[in-house]
Amino acid sequence: MTATTERDTLPIVDFATLGTSQAADQTLAGQLDAIFRGIGFCYFRNIGVDQPLVDGLFRASARFHAQPEAAKRALAMNATHRGYMAPNTSVIVTSTVANVTRPNYSESLMLMHEVAPTDPRFGREVHGPNQWPDLPGFRAAVEAYEAAMREFCLKLLRPMALALNLPPDWFAPHFEKPTTFLRLLHYPPQPPDAPDDAFGSAPHTDYGFLTILCQDSAGGLEVRRADGTWLKAPPIPGTWVVNVADMLSRWTNRRWQSTPHRVKNLSGGDRFSNPYFFDMDMDSTVACVPTCTGPDNPPRFAPVRYGDYLMARLDRNYAYRKPAGD
Questions:
Q1: Residue 90 has what pLDDT?
Q2: How does DSSP assign 155-217, residue by residue?
Q3: Domain count across the chain
Q4: Which CATH number do you get for residue 298?
Q5: In angstroms, what is the C-alpha Rg of the chain?
Q6: What is the C-alpha separation between 205 and 264, in angstroms, rounded?
Q7: pLDDT computed for residue 89 by the predictor
Q8: Residue 226 to residue 111: CA distance in whole angstroms
Q9: Angle in degrees, CA 80, 240, 9, rounded to 5
């Protein structure tokens, strides 16, 4: 890790040694624990996702968003949270750090774990098929990136468990059927005269376990410090921005922080980013892990089924899930 305690810089964790030895994983575990106890955000590098896969994903996203509006809206979000979200159709009313009233000034294509019609989960909650645009090579590029990212995240579970003084395979049963989201985001440039409370993505925390973000060179991501000020998280070539999400913070009894963040695209041009949300099985029960509680530190949260928590937030934040007239 390129360690730093500077208040104006996020740390970088290098995963070149991941899985090479128990000692290497234990070292990574210590680094992750220190960062996640603090600001809850960092950069990852050398995660095993090759640059051609990243480049292919950005090209696929740019091609999708360059299509006519009608072609994108033909893939409008379906009942299982897959498809196109047009600008100004989501308001983060569940934000804990801001009274958000304006919709996000961004558009995106949401792709998730594929669920076949023969799967008993099919049609329930977020279990269903993706909506794929009719663009040659698009699906192959997206699926190649997602497969590499999923492979890394499954390996990452080991040092994360070690960081909490848990058996190395403690998280594994919760991720036999992970809930994954790959969101291809496009942020148009914000007008220079946009009001202060207009955001590409308003201040919020993420819902699940862990977020791994691949961003282009435009910048605009900011992370909220404990004192309420905002820290820029500029793009660094060859890295991903990573943050703890709500369920992981809840699992660890807030030992690890789910930190609010926001996006304003003030670059004057388009911004593209591709967050990958790696979450547990929808049926996983998230209860305080045994190493994060004690006589002087009782559990702060009641156990919750992840799927129930997720669906409650989707229902509140996304226009497509609200009855007409709401």
A1: 53
A2: HHHHHHHHHTT--TTSSGGGGSS-EEEEEEEEEPPPPTT--TT--SEEEE--SSSEEEEEE-T
A3: 1
A4: 2.60.120.330
A5: 19
A6: 16
A7: 63
A8: 32
A9: 125
The residue type at 137: G
**Amino acid at site 176:** E
Please report, as a single letter, which amino acid is at residue 74.
Answer: A
Question: How many angstroms from the chain centroid is the CA of residue 250?
Answer: 16
State the residue range of the domain holding 167. Answer: 12-321
User: What residue type is assigned to position 99 of the chain?
Assistant: N
The verdict on pTM exceeding 0.85 is yes
Distance CA 265, CA 13 (A): 26
Return the bridge partners of 180, or none. 278
* pLDDT at residue 199, rounded to an integer: 82
pLDDT for 250-304, tens place per residue? 999 999 999 999 998 888 999 999 999 999 999 999 999 999 999 999 999 999 9
Query: Both tokens of residue 82?
Result: 């897959």
The DSSP output letter for 323 is P
Q: In this structure, what DSSP letter does residue 55 have?
A: H
CB atoms within 10 A of CB 9: 14
Residue 72 lies in a domain: yes
